Structure formats: structure tokens, C-alpha cells
Amino acid sequence: MFMVVYDITDDRLRERVALTLMEYGFSRMQKSVFIGDVGRNMAEMLAIELRKLVEGSPCDVRIIPVCVRCCENIIIVARLAEVAEEEVVVT
Question: 2-86 — its CATH code?
Fold first, then answer.
């Protein structure tokens, strides 16, 4: 399982990154945080595609491995309604 977090100021690029993540089966946790139950090889393929997509743009994109147990122990303090509607609970 992997989490992708990003800081991208360009609206069009940010949308393209989000769509790419959804194509890879990732679900939105927050506006710029996605989580996906993919293997290492798929995460590396995603990294290659995202690197090409953001090349030359001032941004920060990180793919972080996360264990299932860690996701089960997430403490949600507050949630934006628009993100909560899209959010998929990981079990």
C-alpha cells in the first residue's frame, strides 16, 4: 500500500496528477493526499509516469509506503465534506 502526497500550484497539472492517481486505482484521502493498495512495481511505474508529467514544474510529489496496520490506526480529527464523499475507507 502506498500514499501519494503532493504540493502543486498549477491547477491543470494538479488535476492531471489526481486523474493519473485515480487511473492507478488510488483513492483520495484529502485534496492532495491519495492512498492505493498497489505493489512496489506498480508504485515505481506510477513514479515514472508522474515524473514525466511534472518534469520542469515547481512541485513536490512523494510516494510513501504505508502498512495496512498503520492505515487501520489513523485517527481522523475532522474531515472536509467534499473529500469525505470521495474517500474510500481502507480495511
Answer: 3.30.70.240
